[in-house]
Write a structure and sequence with these properties.
Number of domains: 1
Number of helices: 11
Distance between the termini: 133 Å
Shape: elongated
Radius of gyration: 34 Å
């Protein structure tokens, strides 16, 4: 008889614990918020923040692809240009660089086109093309910095509007209905956190891309410098290597008088 009572008590206690655990689990499921719930809770600022997050991912992927060694100075392009320079086929090197489509080929094309004008003009053309490529790469990556600056400001705007709603509800209903006040404060926290969640990786990616761009430009400079190290400027002087149009011609002193008349 005592054993039956003890067994019944243990069974009742076990069932009670199971009921409590099930109730706690059910309550946790009810209070667990999905990503979509947080999105709606954040208010209207979640829409521009979402757009900024999509743009951030696109600029990060695009930036890391563009700054890779395979895009800046492909191995086959570098090897082909070196072979043409070893043969002295500068017309062929210009033709290949013009159609290759890589940044290192663009720099070589600009340099070879100005070799008939001497070393100084060639170096200036190379530096100008390298500067253009660097500015283009940094210009695209700078959008990540813009996103990193703007998203916290957007989140702060949501913070201000959420606080306005919170104080409005507090002034109209007092502390008698804390659920409405908690809802407004939740909007404040979600908007602020979302803005920071986008800004932090945007800034990190921006500085990582800046380092990759600097390294890539340095590598291109070294490759091109090696190609033009012993270039025979004297033998190329006065010849037309590329098909770049030359606008300056011999002076025609009678041209102005003919236009005026």
């Amino acid at each position: 008889m005592k054993m039956n009572l003890r067994t019944t008590s243990l069974s009742a206690a076990f069932l009670g614990l199971m009921t409590i655990a099930a109730s706690a689990q059910e309550a946790a499921v009810k209070h667990e918020k999905t990503l979509m719930d947080l999105f709606h809770e954040g208010g209207w600022v979640m829409y521009p923040i979402t757009l900024c997050s999509v743009a951030m991912i696109w600029f990060i992927v695009d930036g890391f692809i563009r700054t890779s060694a395979g895009k800046l100075y492909p191995v086959d392009h570098v090897n082909q240009l070196r072979e043409l320079f070893k043969k002295g086929d500068y017309v062929g090197a210009y033709a290949f660089a013009k159609t290759a489509g890589s940044p290192v080929a663009d720099v070589v094309r600009a340099g070879v086109a100005f070799t008939p004008d001497g070393k100084t003009m060639t170096e200036e053309a190379i530096i100008s093309e390298i500067t253009r490529i660097q500015a283009e790469l940094k210009g695209r990556s700078s959008y990540l910095s813009v996103i990193g600056v703007c998203t916290p400001m957007i989140g702060l705007t949501g913070t201000v509007t959420g606080m306005m709603k919170a104080f409005e509800k507090l002034g109209s209903s007092g502390v008698g209905d804390p659920s409405k006040l908690a809802e407004a404060i939740g909007e404040v926290l979600v908007a602020t956190a979302s803005g920071l969640f986008i800004a932090i990786p945007a800034f990190m990616s921006y500085y990582l891309l800046a380092n990759r761009i600097n390294k890539g430009i340095h590598d291109i400079t070294e490759i091109v410098t090696g190609l033009f190290r012993a270039f025979p400027y004297d033998e190329v002087a006065g010849r037309k290597v590329g098909d770049e149009e030359i606008y300056a011609a011999k002076p025609d002193w009678n041209a102005s008088s003919n236009v005026q008349s």
